[in-house]
Design brief:
Layout (H helix, E strand, L loop, with lengths): L1 E5 L5 H5 L4 E16 L2 E18 L7 H8 L5 E5 L2 E11 L4 E9 L8 H15 L4 E7 L3 H9 L3 E6 L13 E7 L12
Parallel strand pairs: 6-7
Antiparallel strand pairs: 1-4, 2-3, 4-5, 5-6, 7-9, 8-9
Length: 194
C-alpha cells in the first residue's frame, strides 16, 4: 500500500535515488509573442519535436539544505511504499500572497502512471484548504508537455509565462510556464487573508 504523508526531512541519497532524468517529451508548446500598438498577446501551440527532448538535472541544483528549509514550512509531502520513498513534493508556504508554491515534484520511474503524483497533489490541496490558502502555484517548462498535461488533469490552469527566466546557453528554447489551482473555501476566518 502506498501512503502519502508530510515530509519532515529529505536526504541527498533520497533525492538522487530518483535519477538524473527530470523528464522527456515528444512535443512542446511553441510560444509566440505578438505586439501590435497597445496590444500584446501570446500564443501557445502544441507541436511535435523533431527528436525526443530529454531534460536532465544538474547536480548543483540538488541541494538537500534548500529543500529541508522549505520542508520546514510544513507543506512538503512524501509518498512511501513499504517505508521506501517513491515520490516527493517540496512545497513552500508563501505567506505574502496566501498561496503554496510547489518547488519540485518527483515520482520514481517504476511508480509513474499509478496516480502517485495526483495523490500528492490531492493531499496538498486538502492541507492547503485546512490552512485557508487561496491557491497552489507551480512553474514548469513549455518543453515539459507531460507535466503540463498532468497539472491540467489535476485542475491547474495556465496563469502566465516568463520568456527570459532560463539562460538560453543552458536551456535552449525553454520558457517558464506558470500554472495554478484555486482552493475552494467555504469559510475564510477573519485575519487569514494577507
Amino acid at each position: 500500500m502506498i501512503e502519502v504523508k508530510k515530509l519532515y526531512q529529505i536526504t541527498y541519497d533520497q533525492i538522487i535515488s530518483f535519477g538524473t532524468t527530470l523528464y522527456s517529451s515528444e512535443s512542446r508548446y511553441e510560444i509566440k509573442r505578438q505586439v501590435s500598438g497597445d496590444e500584446i498577446s501570446f500564443k501557445m501551440t502544441l507541436v511535435q519535436n523533431t527528436d525526443n527532448y530529454v531534460k536532465y538535472t544538474s547536480s548543483n541544483l540538488i541541494t538537500e539544505d534548500n529543500y529541508n528549509l522549505i520542508i520546514d514550512h510544513g507543506y512538503s509531502l512524501g509518498a512511501f511504499h513499504e517505508d521506501k520513498m517513491i515520490g516527493y513534493m517540496i512545497a513552500e508556504d508563501r505567506k505574502w500572497n496566501n498561496s503554496v508554491w510547489i518547488e519540485m515534484i518527483r515520482v520514481a520511474k517504476d511508480y509513474k502512471g499509478y496516480g502517485i503524483g495526483s495523490s500528492m497533489l490531492s493531499t496538498l490541496e486538502s492541507l492547503s484548504k485546512e490552512c485557508f490558502k487561496r491557491s497552489i502555484e507551480i512553474e514548469t517548462q513549455n518543453m515539459n508537455v507531460p507535466a503540463i498535461n498532468f497539472y491540467k488533469k489535476n485542475g491547474f490552469i495556465f496563469t502566465g509565462l516568463n520568456m527570459t527566466l532560463y539562460d538560453p546557453e543552458e536551456c535552449d528554447d525553454e520558457i517558464a510556464v506558470y500554472m495554478s489551482k484555486d482552493i475552494e473555501q467555504s469559510y475564510i476566518p477573519p485575519g487569514t487573508m494577507h
